[in-house]
Structure formats: structure tokens, C-alpha cells
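FAQ

Q: What does a record look like?
A: Structure on top, sequence underneath. For example:
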């Protein structure tokens, strides 16, 4: 089990306990102790260093505004697709910017990674699917504010815990393409995947979000939902 709290301030003890309470209500169990990403920064750094040494990462100094102004397409999440502005920067120029205090994010050289990996497949709900990571472009693997990214940490953590089957929301289905690529170039096993439909906000028809004040799993439980209701809604029964 993974508790995503790269910044320890993002996950206060009461929030973590609320997650555990929801999982217990669902009847789930997990190995102890719980793996916390805040204690695995050096592990992610080692994985990133392997990619840098292999020539698969490069620093990017572009702001979100600059990327949005130059992008001509979108990634699967709907964000502006990075146009590769910093891909050709000279190493000396990058080092100079870093000495001046610029903090880069590190991006994957997608075309080179795909060339080395070749054709990629994964199992989704028992069916073989072709992975198409190219639609993510040069994805960010090390962010400016944290020494990893969701994509890098989830791949490294799943391998460390010998995860064989991953069940998660359909909103992460496209990310699987990128994860399969990272698993291949890092020499890690690819789990089997199954992506379930989401519980949507009845008012707006969007996935539940704390930032929009959507109902939590706890509030659904308190309003009378049962674990069986939730499983039926997500398509598991």
C-alpha cells in the first residue's frame, strides 16, 4: 500500500487516519508498515539518476505560461503538450541557469525512450492492450517542488512492493501507457491493470474533488451508502 505524501505537510495524521477508516469500512486490509513516499526520496532520486545517466532525462526551465503559449496540442489530461523548447539546450547553458538559481524540472526524452523500448503492451481487465506513451510527449518525471512525480514514484513503489495487480480509476487509464514505458526502461515488471469507472458529482457530472467541495467517501458512508453500493456503482458486481 502507498500513501502519497511527498511533502509531509500535505498529509497530516488525521487525514491519513481518515483514509485508513475509509479502507477499513470497505473491508480492505494491507501490509504494515504503510509505505510513505516522504521517506523514499533517495529511492526516486536513484531511479531518476539511472535515467539521466542513460541520456533519457533533460532539464526544462519553461514556465506553465510559456508552455501554454507555444503548445499546439494537448496531452491525455488536457494540459498543453510540451513543445520541446528546452530539449536542445546545451549542457553548459543549463548548468549556468542552475548556478543562477533557476530550478528546472526534468523531462523524459520520449522519442529516445520509445526507440529503446520498442512496442509495448499491458494487460487491462484480462485483455492485451498496446501502450501509446508518445501521446504524453516529454513528460515531467522530476518536478520543481518535489524530487519526483506521480508517474515515477508509482512505478518505483509498485515494483518495490511486488505489486501484481493494480485497480484504479479510469481517469488514470492513459497514464498506464507512460507507466509501462517507465517500467520497461527501468527493468521493472509490469502489473496487470483494471480501471474502474468513477463516482461523479451529481450536480456537475465531474469526478469528485476536494477543491470543488465534492462529497467525500466518509460523507457517502454517513448518508447511507454501503460497501456493496459502492462496488456496484464502480462496476465490480
Amino acid at each position: 500500500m502507498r500513501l502519497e505524501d511527498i511533502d509531509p505537510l500535505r498529509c497530516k495524521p488525521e487525514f491519513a487516519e481518515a483514509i485508513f477508516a475509509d479502507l477499513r469500512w470497505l473491508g480492505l486490509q494491507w501490509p504494515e508498515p504503510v509505505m510513505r513516499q516522504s521517506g523514499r526520496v533517495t529511492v526516486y532520486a536513484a531511479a531518476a539518476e539511472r535515467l539521466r545517466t542513460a541520456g533519457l532525462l533533460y532539464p526544462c526551465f519553461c514556465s506553465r505560461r510559456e508552455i501554454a503559449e507555444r503548445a499546439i496540442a494537448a496531452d491525455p489530461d488536457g494540459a498543453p503538450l510540451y513543445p520541446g523548447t528546452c530539449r536542445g539546450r546545451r549542457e553548459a547553458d543549463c548548468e549556468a541557469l542552475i548556478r543562477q538559481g533557476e530550478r528546472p524540472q526534468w523531462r523524459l526524452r520520449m522519442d529516445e525512450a520509445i526507440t529503446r523500448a520498442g512496442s509495448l503492451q499491458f494487460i487491462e481487465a484480462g485483455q492485451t492492450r498496446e501502450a501509446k506513451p508518445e501521446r504524453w510527449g516529454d513528460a515531467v518525471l522530476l518536478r520543481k517542488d518535489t524530487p519526483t512525480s506521480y508517474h515515477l514514484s508509482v512505478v518505483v513503489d509498485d515494483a518495490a512492493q511486488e505489486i501484481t495487480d493494480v485497480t484504479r480509476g479510469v481517469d488514470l487509464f492513459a497514464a498506464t501507457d507512460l507507466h509501462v514505458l517507465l517500467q520497461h526502461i527501468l527493468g521493472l515488471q509490469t502489473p496487470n491493470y483494471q480501471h474502474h469507472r468513477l463516482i461523479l458529482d451529481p450536480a456537475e457530472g465531474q469526478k469528485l474533488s476536494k477543491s470543488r467541495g465534492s462529497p467525500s467517501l466518509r460523507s457517502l458512508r454517513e448518508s447511507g451508502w454501503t460497501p456493496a453500493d459502492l462496488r456496484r456503482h464502480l462496476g465490480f458486481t
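Q: Is there anything notable about this one?
A: Residues 40-162+172-185 form a domain with the Rossmann fold fold (CATH 3.40.50.620).
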